[in-house]
Amino acid sequence: QVQLVESGGGLVQPGGSLRLSCAASGSVFGIGDMGWYRQAPGKQRELVAGITSIASTNYADSVKGRFTISRDVAKKTVYLQMNSLKPEDTAVYYCKADLRPYSNRPIYESYWGQGTQVTVSP
Q1: Cβ 112 vs Cβ 38: under 8 Å
Q2: Which of 9, 65, 88, 89 is 20 to 30 A from 117 (CA-CA)?
């Protein structure tokens, strides 16, 4: 069974840095687009950063210049390097990936991680 497992969240002071990781486990025969989303209390889930299968990236305006998304296809992992963190970055961060779980069918399905809490506070 394919799963996405996130790690790297925690408590950090304003101006600090964190690196989130999200690794796919199970039988994966292809990796498509991957991305990071976040959801703060009382708010809708929003896209933070995305990376396509050809490594093209896009970012929410609020994180441009501070966050960097990258991927390691061999490790089936996507990363989010977060620098200059602000209190408004506090949220549960989720990774999402389009993965091919079948060896004999060229079909990609979307998977979500369980979420990891990021808290930015003095």
Answers
A1: no
A2: 65
